[in-house]
Amino acid sequence: MSKIGFIGLGNMGGPMVKNLVEAGHSVAIYDIDDEATTRAVSYGGIAKSDAVGTIQNAETVITMLPAGEHVRSVYLENDNLIEHVNKHCLLIDCSTIDVSTAREVIALAKERDIEMIDAPVSGGVGGAEAATLTFMCGGTDSAFNKAQPLLQVMGKNIFHAGSAGSGQAAKVCNNLMLGIEMVAVSEGFVLADKLGLDKQKLWDIASTATSQCWAMTNYCPVPGPVPSSPANRDYKAGFTIAMMLKDLKLSQEAAKTNGAFTPLASLATDLYESFATNDKNEDLDFSSIIKLIENQ
Ligand code: NAD
After folding, report:
1. Residues labelled as active-site residues
2. How far is the CA of 3 from the centre of ligand 1 (A)?
3. Distance 34 CA to ligand 1 centre (A)
4. Could you report the per-residue pLDDT of 160-192, keeping only the tens digit for each?
5. Which range marks the domain in which residue 275 is found?
6. Three-state SS at 118
């Protein structure tokens, strides 16, 4: 059993805490949102009154926060964990954030001889609940090896992508491809409908043909062919339009900074952004982008 501090108890962080507690770890928790904290307490987390409270005696601190600004606030600014944390404590940031913030925070931790990895995840809330997340990690071999046993409690596929920030690099490229794929699958199904082709027939054929991809086989944006996909429950998220837009924007920042040509991701970003301008759409699952395609 190890002592863990866990900060950020939202849709992902909450069930991750549950799995850590069920594996026998002692987990001190903090979130600025009382409701999220209450839920994680019901899973066996020990509530602390601030982020610094979670790091007392912690061997590992895990963060699962919305974006780079929150990670910066917790590690470097408001809570300044990097200054307060014990030098033997391993830091694991599982949030999806920009590569440069991840590299900066890990470099500042290193200046204080503190080991840290970026470890964003894929697999969604279902994966967090079922402890089947994929972790994409960036950092030294030593930090990765220390993190692995805990990551295995929360996930199934644990990858060491490379040096600091490489986990975020893998995540941003993955979600760039996923965002485009969901638009592509939506276009195919909308055209099929206009051509009078049955959606189940298209799925039966395309899911075993060359356009096969996760967005179609696991998360089909039309109701019917994949009963577990959000399309069958009015696009209740899942992974929201707002989150996909956040990740596509990260991909566009990264492409600009590093001189990569990403014309389809640029167009996909515009499409998700235009759909998200209606507040009600922001919280829908990202597969609801098919509604924008259908309604043009
Ligand atoms: P969420 O908004 O449900 O949870 C984030 C939590 O962080 C909230 O409870 C919020 O109150 C808390 N928080 C914000 N600032 C804080 C601070 N300064 N101190 C303490 N707590 C703070 O988000 P989520 O769905 O759990 O996602 C978390 C991260 O995981 C995001 O970076 C997201 O992109 C990524 N992610 C999400 C999914 C998904 O399907 N939801 C999938 C893969 C990756």
Report:
1. 171
2. 22
3. 14
4. 999 999 999 999 999 999 999 999 999 999 999
5. 169-295
6. strand
Number of separate domains in the chain:
2
Question: Which CB contacts under 8 angstroms, 24+ apart, belong to 204-213?
Answer: 211/184, 211/185, 213/181, 213/184, 213/185
Q: Are 70 and 129 in contact (CB under 8 A)?
A: no
Give the number of C-alpha atoms closer than 13 A to the C-alpha of residue 143, restricted to the C-beta side.
28
The whole-angstrom separation of Cα 162 and Cα 20 is 25
Angle at 168 between CA 162 and CA 172, to 5 degrees: 120
Domain boundary among 130, 163, 196: 163
Could you tell me the distance, in angstroms and rounded to a whole number, from the CA of residue 215 to the centre of ligand 1? 23
Q: Summarize pLDDT for 100-115 with one digit per residue, the tens.
A: 999 999 999 999 999 9
Residues 6+ apart with CB under 8 A from 89: 55, 58, 59, 60, 61, 114
CATH code of 24's domain:
3.40.50.720
In ligand 1, the atom with minimum distance to the C-alpha of 65 is 7
Ligand 1 atom nearest the C-alpha of 12 is 26
Between 15-24, 44-53, 244-253, 277-286, the lowest mean confidence (pLDDT) is in 277-286
- Of 128, 163, 198, the one marking the end of a domain is 163
Output the ligand 1 site: residues, CB below 6 A: 7-13, 30-33, 36, 51, 64-66, 70, 73-74, 95-96, 121-122, 124-125, 239, 243
Same domain, 147 and 13: yes
pLDDT tens, residue by residue, 210-229: 999 999 999 999 999 999 99
pLDDT at residue number 238 = 81
* Torsion on CA atoms 56, 60, 175, 161, rounded to nearest 10: 150
Instruction: Judge whether 7 and 17 are in contact, CB under 8 Å.
Output: no
